[in-house]
Specification:
T cell receptor beta variable 30; 10 strands; six-stranded mixed β-sheet; 115 residues; globular; TCR_beta_variable; mainly beta; signal; single chain; Immunoglobulin-like; immunity
C-alpha cells in the first residue's frame, strides 16, 4: 500500500511590528489513498483577511487551490477533489475528499490584508 505524507507549513505576511500569527493543524499527515483529509488554518491578531490555500509538489511548483475574501464564501481554482470552509472570519479549513498519490505535497495557508 502507498502511504501519502502531507506536510503543512505556515506562511505569514508581515505588516508592521505586531504581526498577526497564523496557525495550521496538523503539521504533518500520513494517510492511505482514498482517505479524507482536513487541514485547519486559524489567524490571530488581524481582522477581515483574505485567506488562501496553496500546495507545492515535488517539482517545486506552487499552486493556488482555494481562496476566500469574506466569511462564508470560498472560491475554488478548478481543483475538484478540494473544498474549503470559512465558518468564521479567522478560520479556513481545507478538505480533500479522497486522497490520491498526486496530492502528496506541502500545503500552505496564507493571508493578505483586505484593502
Amino acid at each position: 500500500m502507498l502511504l501519502l505524507l502531507l506536510c503543512v507549513w505556515t506562511v505569514i505576511r508581515f505588516s508592521g511590528s505586531a504581526s498577526p500569527k497564523i496557525f495550521q493543524n496538523p503539521l504533518f499527515i500520513a494517510k492511505f489513498p482514498g482517505q479524507p483529509v482536513e487541514l485547519d488554518c486559524a489567524l490571530d491578531g488581524t481582522s477581515n483577511p483574505n485567506l488562501y490555500w496553496y500546495r507545492q509538489d515535488a517539482s517545486g511548483m506552487l499552486e493556488l487551490l482555494l481562496y476566500s475574501v469574506v466569511t462564508g464564501s470560498v472560491e475554488n481554482n478548478g481543483y475538484k477533489n478540494f473544498t474549503a470552509e470559512r465558518p468564521e472570519d479567522l478560520k479556513f479549513k481545507l478538505k480533500i475528499k479522497s486522497l490520491l498519490a498526486s496530492h502528496t505535497a506541502v500545503y500552505y495557508c496564507a493571508w493578505s490584508k483586505t484593502q
